[in-house]
Design a protein that fits this description.
Keywords: Membrane, Transmembrane, Transmembrane helix. This protein has a domain of 139 residues. 74% of the residues lie in helices and 0% in strands. The protein is built from 13 helices and no strands. The longest helix has 32 residues.
Amino acid sequence: MKGTIFMSKFKLSNIPRGFAMGISDLIPGVSGGTIALLLGIYDDFIASVSGVFSKNFKQSIAFLLPIVIGMGLAIGGLSSLINYLLAEHTMPTMYFFFGLIIGIVPFLVRISKIKQTFTMKHWAILVAAILFLAVMALFKGDAAHGAPTYIDLSTPMLIKYFIAGICASSAMLLPGISGSFVLLVFGVYSTVTYSISEIVHFNFQALPVIITVGLGILVGFLIASKLITYLLQHYTFMTYAAILGLVIGSLFSVFPGIPTSGLTWFASFITLLLGFIVSYVLGRYTEV
């Protein structure tokens, strides 16, 4: 983990890292920040986002551009496949990500240096972060209501879309919290996804929703990235304690339930094990 120093060159190797982050952004409950942490670019990513509107904007853009390209390729190329897997093979797919999250915990324990640095206040922050996401997992917002037949463009709703965008983008930068999950909690997830699909089909009536949420996301990125950068600089191990708690707490929202058939049990166990091995091995060889 490099702290406040971030890479200043365009690196092609960051395209596959962005690709992996893009895949995670397609999964409600899975955080792109978790994947960035696992791949060893989290601190650099946060510092670069924070530096876009600073004197270091050229270095920041150079670092972020290949990540954005990778994310775009993943979202554009794999969204149909991920949607198919989530719809037709929900349990094995979600258990893969469940295992992926479990496998990152040993890496977080290592970089947090728990035995040397953690005191009662660190453990309190960790437990509070776990409980926060555990409670959030109880609220699913509009997830079960399907696509809306009417988009409310009243001023109060536009304000709600803007605030939801701020909170969702802030969550995307934090390991353990999914931006799409925050939209679910706010009750605007189906409206936003429906609006995106309408824009793709050249129905621009939903454009105000996309613009409002987009502005909120931009503001959230700027505010959250600077705050996280500050916390990593001045309260490093307390921040790691919060991150570890958020990652563990995210298991409550990702857990898909108990398989109901023998075949599903077997497939889920295999994908869980595969996900764990992937993240554990990556964590073992990630430079601290």
